[in-house]
Amino acid sequence: MGRLMTQEEVAELLDQFQKHLGAEQRLQEELVGLKISGSRDQVAKAQKRHDELIEQIDRLRIEEMIPVVERIAQFVAACQELEAREGRAG
Predict the structure, then answer these.
(1) Contact by Cβ (8 Å): 53, 37
(2) Number of C-beta neighbours around residue 89 at 10 A
(3) What is the pLDDT along the chain (90 residues), one digit of tens a residue?
(4) Contacts of 64 (CB under 8 A, 6+ apart)
(5) In this structure, what are the phi and psi dihedrals at residue 64, rounded to the nearest 5 degrees?
(6) Using CB atoms within 10 A as the burial measure, which of 1, 9, 35, 48 is most buried?
(7) Is residue 61 domain-resident?
């Protein structure tokens, strides 16, 4: 069974997720705004920055966002299990 949380803990998790989502959006906006044109040097720098941004977005999703979603999912599962047990007992 997952762990039940207080309302404050759930709110904190949602706040963390919102912050990560905002950070991801800023990275994606920079990615979309990249201009991959000009001299070979400019193109090489833009391609390097592109790769860095993709890596940062992936890291943010894997290391920050997914763990928050997993904790929320565990909380929801714990609530559902508790409701099911209370339904059987009642």
Answers:
(1) no
(2) 6
(3) 568 899 999 999 999 999 999 999 999 999 999 998 999 999 999 999 999 999 999 999 999 999 999 999 999 999 999 999 988 776
(4) 16, 20
(5) -115, -50
(6) 9
(7) yes
In the chain, the number of structural domains is 1
User: Measuring CA to CA, which residue among 20, 4, 24 is closest to residue 72?
Assistant: 4
Threshold 0.70, pTM exceeds: yes
Instruction: Encode burial over 37-75: b for 16+ CB neighbours within 10 A, e otherwise.
Output: eeeeeeeeeeeeeeeebeeebeebeeebbeebeebbeeb
Three-class secondary structure of residue 14 per DSSP: helix
- The answer to whether position 1 is within a domain reads no
By residue range, what is the domain housing residue 22? Answer: 7-84
Residue 90 belongs to some domain of the structure: no
Per-state percent for the chain, helix, strand, coil, to nearest 5: 85, 0, 15
Q: How far apart are the first and last CA of the chain?
A: 20
